[in-house]
Structure formats: structure tokens, C-alpha cells
Amino acid sequence: MKIRSPIVSVLGHVDHGKTTLLDYIRGSTIADKEAGGITQHIGATEIPNDTIDEICGSFISALTIKDLIPGLFFIDTPGHAAFTSLRKRGGALADLAVLIVDVNDGFKPQTFEALNILKMYKTPFIVVANKIDMIFGWETHEGFSFKESFNQQAQSVKQALDTKVYEIVGTLHKEGFQSERFDRISDFASQISIIPISARSGEGIIEVLAMLLGLAQEYLTEQLEINEDAPAKGTVLEIKEETGLGLTVDSIIYDGVLRTNDEIALMTSNNEVLTTKIRSILRPLPLEEMRDSKKKFKKFDEVVAAAGIKIAAPNLDDVVSGSPLRVLNDEEDVEEEILKEIEDITINTDDEGILVKADTLGSLEAIVQLLKELDIPIREADIGDVNRRDIINSSIALNENEAHGAIIAFNVGVHQNSEEDLNNSDVMLFKGDVIYQIIEDYEEWIKQREEAKKKAFYDAIIKPAKFMSLPKLVFRQSKPAIIGVEALSGTVKQGQKLINKNGESVGIIASMEDKGETLPDISRGQRVAMAIDNAIVGKDFDEGDELFIDIPENHYKFIEREFKDKLTEDEFETLYEFLEIKRKQDPDWGKFGLFE
């Protein structure tokens, strides 16, 4: 058995310094070449022990770190959820992770998302608090260890940094993690290390590398054991068109050996297994990054894990990012193993719920997990663009339950031929490239729908109101009775039934008029002429009497249970006057039964 390099994933919010950190280590300038300084593609960089020794010097020997680990193998993700595509059966591809946080900005949406994913996969990680050189008054000491640089800062600067670090400690505590600045930790197994650094000046990088090596040797040596002679296992990062090679697969090999002419199995966008033969294996040299290898790629006849490689092979058109990669062999049913991996994710759905689409297996898994934690049911979860079938299925779900007429689409688009279908349907599409932002948008939509339904229901409920029949303003005694009235409380509406102070039915409001204008409703203080069907003035009520809107018993119960706090003060008083009138006739009127 051989010990391989631990695979280290670097995650964090956009612009918090992921690529700059790796640039310092490998001495490259990839960050300057990226559009807007943001990593556009997933990359992998091998950092051999010789390089780590050069950077860390006597610092590492002082820590008595043994030479069990051959180096570190960094994966540079585009920040938020690309980590999820880097998976293997049973969990995350990364053995360790670096969660990078701008010490001045603190946790941002993508930081929280990365933390949730690390929590989900139970990946050990350290927190790197970057941009200490931006703290007011900080004196930069290029290439120094954090402790050496920190000791030379003014007291006020030290206090400012400590305050910022403890804000990170507080945030992590709320998220369920115990943490501390790395040099104050008593138990590395139970506390997360926070290492303050400047990725630009290199301050603190020594401690980052030493900490990762130390954690790997202390806790991961069994996990890092590989059989150099076993058929390779890997994960597809990207499918890319390369001049002179055609479509190629960028992949991380995390176990075993891969050779030219090996037959490999991969997953397609149709959830089927594709087998193809390797034409050539290309690999960047150590310290060369897969996206920017200055010497391009060197051909290899074989590679042993851990390795970042490019594979040239036929028929790669439908292979998906995040696909498992397996070498066909006589000892394992490789195709069955890949199908099981797919089933692990897609089979865990409900009879009803929303639809989920994602760009990779791992992304899909992360979204499904987060939705399950929020008790949001999932009817179907799959990889690829939103298509016509998805829209039809969502429309069916919508008819069954309005809240389920939604599609959550992460890092995917809508199929060109399906845009019109979507626009002609009532299905809601929530799409984007930050998982929890999409889910938040969906939850906000649900909340708004619930509030709209509640408002519509509240508007439909008959609420307390009363008015007075004004003395000497009887224009007709009956058929219909027409009188002058003044609204005393609530909103009096056309079509409402009325009762008098004895609880007896008076009739129904037929219409209301003011200066020739017909009014659908009146509120407190308004004086109008009112026509009342089925009422006789002098028999059902007298001039000067107060008349009440007759509230059905089930409406009263809803008001009591759901909407009492929405009533105005005058409506509230009228409600209890009305209740008194009703209970003189029936003492149990409006009371809640034992099981209500």
C-alpha cells in the first residue's frame, strides 16, 4: 500500500482570495488572467513536499511533521457549489478543505453555502481568514509566518485582528462548530483552526501548509492508503474541446492506476453508462495548473493517484461533469457500481413535490439534501437542462398542489425548444448558481403565496361592523326599506345580512348611495342612504337603532383563531357586542369544540 497526497479543496465566496492563495504557493499569476479575478473553471495543482519545504523552511521541521505524506493536491473550485461535483461514492472527493473568508467582510452567502456542503459531506476543514494586510495599520512582512508578522504589529492592530477573528468564531458557533485561532487550539480533533493570512504577501501561508500536512498525517493516513496496482477510480471535473484532440475529460484520479488503452466507464446526461477506450493521458507538470500549464500537457502511459489528468477518448459528447470514472476490470461490475451511485441520488424522491435539475451529480445531491432538511418534498431530481417533459410534469404537480408547480434549476438552462412551453405554463422556474439563494427564492415565493391566500381568505370573511339608523331619515318603510345611516365601526358592505340588538334577522343590504353615487361599502363616520331588502322600519328596527352585520358562526371562529390581531379597536369592540347578542339566544354560540 502507498500513501497518496491528500486532496484539498479550496472554497469560499467570490473575491475572498481562493485563487490568489494558490497563486502564491505555486508562484503563478493565474488570478490576474481570470476575467474579473474570478476562477472560471475547476483546476488542480500538485504541491510536492520539496516545494512545501522551500516555503515553510525550518517551521515544518520544528513541528516534527514526518514525511509520510508526499505532498498536497489542491483543487481550486469556482467558489460556491462546484465542490459538490467533486464527489466519489460515499461522500466528497476532497479529503480536506480550506474555507477561505475575507477577514474584513466575514461570512457571505457563498461562504455559508460552502460551509453547509462541508457539513453535509463531513469533510474536515480549516478556515483561512484572508486579507489581514487590509486591516488598518497592518505592516506587511512578505513571506513571514503569521506569528512572526503578528508579533511585529502595533497593539491596536492586534486587537483589531482579534476582534475580526472572534466574529468568525461567533459565526461558526451559530453554525454548530467550535473554533479558535490556530495557535490557541487545545484539541485539533474537536475545534476548527482559524489561520489569519494575506494571500498577496504570503503572511501565514506557512501555517496553512503545515496545518494541512499535520491534519492529514494525524487523522487521514488510513483514508489516504491506495493500491497502486488496482484499476483507477476518479471523478470527471469538466468536458472540454481541445484543439487537435477534440472533446477531452478533465478528471481527478483518487485511487489506483490509469493506463493508456484502458477501457473506462462514465455516466451520460441520460443516466446511462458509456464505455470508451483511452487514446491518451495528458498531465500538467507539478506546480502547473490544469487550466494554465505553460508547457501544455505531457503524455503519460500511466498515472497513479492522486492525479489531475486530461483524457482523450472517443464518444465523450454526453458525459456529464461530476460523473464517476471507473476502469473496466474482471473483478468488479463497474457499470453496476456507477448506476448505483446515480440511484443513490435520484431515487430518493417523494410521490409529490417540486422538480430539481442540476448540472452535476454532486450538485444534485447537495440540493436534494438541503431541500430534505427544509422538509420540501421532491417529486423528481435529475441532471441536465430543463426540458418539455419537466414542464409537463411540473404542470401536473401544480394541478395537485400549487406549491409544487416549481422547478429548481442549479447551473442549468432551459432547453431551447422548451422556452415557449415554460412561458405558456404557470410553472415557476427558480434558477441560479448559488444553491441556497435559489432555495431562499422558492421559500419566499411560497411565503408570498401563503400570505396572498391568507389575505384573500381574510378579505372574504365577514368581519364585525355596525351602523345606526339615523332619526327622521326614513325615506321608505319597506320593499325595500330606505333609510339614512351612519357607519359606527368596521366596513359595512352591500349584500351583507343584518341583525338587530335582540339578535333577530333584519334583512339584507341591497344598496348604498351618497349624492347619487352607488357605493359597494362604507366605513366608520360615513353617512349614506341605504336600501334594505326584507326589512320593515318600525317592526324589525326603529329609527336611532344600531344594526349589526350578521357574522356566520364559522367566520367568527376563524376571526377568533386566526385574525383577531388584525381587527381595529372599533371592530374588536363590536365583535364582543355582537357575541353578547348571539349568546343571549345560544350560550354555546361560537365556542370551540373539544377537538377544534
UniProtKB/TrEMBL annotation:
SUPFAM superfamilies: Initiation factor IF2/eIF5b, domain 3, P-loop containing nucleoside triphosphate hydrolases, Translation proteins. The keyword Glycosyltransferase does not apply. GTP binds at residues 12-19, 76-80, 130-133. Residues 3-220 form the Tr-type G domain. Keywords: GTP-binding, Initiation factor, Nucleotide-binding, Protein biosynthesis. One of its GO terms (molecular function) is GTP binding. Pfam families: GTP_EFTU, GTP_EFTU_D2, GTP_EFTU_D4, IF-2. PROSITE patterns: G_TR_2. InterPro entries: EFTu-like_2 (IPR004161), EFTU-type (IPR029459), P-loop_NTPase (IPR027417), Small_GTP-bd (IPR005225), T_Tr_GTP-bd_dom (IPR000795), TF_aIF-2_arc (IPR004544), TIF_IF2 (IPR015760), TIF_IF2_dom3 (IPR023115). CDD domains: aeIF5B_II (cd03703), IF2_aeIF5B_IV (cd16266), IF2_eIF5B (cd01887). GO terms for cellular component: cytoplasm. NCBIfam families: aIF-2, PRK04004.1, small_GTP. Function in general translation initiation by promoting the binding of the formylmethionine-tRNA to ribosomes. Seems to function along with eIF-2. Belongs to the TRAFAC class translation factor GTPase superfamily. Classic translation factor GTPase family. IF-2 subfamily. This is Probable translation initiation factor IF-2. It comes from Methanobrevibacter millerae.
